[in-house]
């Protein structure tokens, strides 16, 4: 029975922490765009996924049906083989 003197205040503290976290998330627009991330996964490449040096630049032209850009070889895409 004496454990209730510890558990009740502890549960009230956790409840108040959860309520504070919810209102913080609403205030900081965490729930503004609920559908965007679900559709964003369908796109191949997002502008924000690129390195900062390449952001804002257009896509390089693809010359062949494999999707590789001009001047690249297969060995340019492959990492060094393990030893």
List the defining traits of the structure above.
83 residues, mainly alpha, 40% helix, elongated, Cyt_oxidase_maturation_cbb3, membrane, Cytochrome oxidase maturation protein, cbb3-type, transmembrane helix, transmembrane
Would you kindly provide a written description of the structure presented here, covering whatever features stand out?
The protein has helices at 4-27, 36-40, 74-77. By secondary structure, it is an all-alpha fold. The protein has a domain at 10-44. The longest helix is centred in the N-terminal third of the chain and has 24 residues, at 4-27. The radius of gyration is 25 Å and the shape is elongated.
**Major sheet, described briefly?**
none
State the helix count.
Answer: 3
- How big a fraction of the residues is strand? under 5%
Helix content: 25-40%
Radius of gyration: 25 Å
Element order: H for helix, E for strand: HHH
Which term fits the overall shape? elongated
Indicate the multimeric state. Answer: single chain
Span of the ends, CA to CA: 64 Å
Question: Which regions are unreliable across 5 or more consecutive residues at pLDDT < 50?
Answer: none
Name the structural class: mainly alpha
Q: Compute the number of strand runs.
A: 0
What is the mean predicted local confidence, pLDDT? Answer: 77
């Amino acid at each position: 029975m004496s454990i209730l003197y510890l558990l009740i205040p502890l549960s009230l503290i956790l409840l108040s922490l959860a309520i504070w976290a919810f209102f913080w998330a609403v205030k900081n627009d965490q729930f503004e765009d609920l559908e965007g991330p679900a559709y964003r996964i369908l796109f191949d490449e997002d502008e924000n996924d690129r390195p900062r040096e390449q952001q804002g630049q257009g896509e390089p032209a693809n010359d062949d049906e494999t999707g590789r850009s001009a001047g690249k070889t297969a060995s340019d895409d492959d990492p060094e083989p393990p030893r």
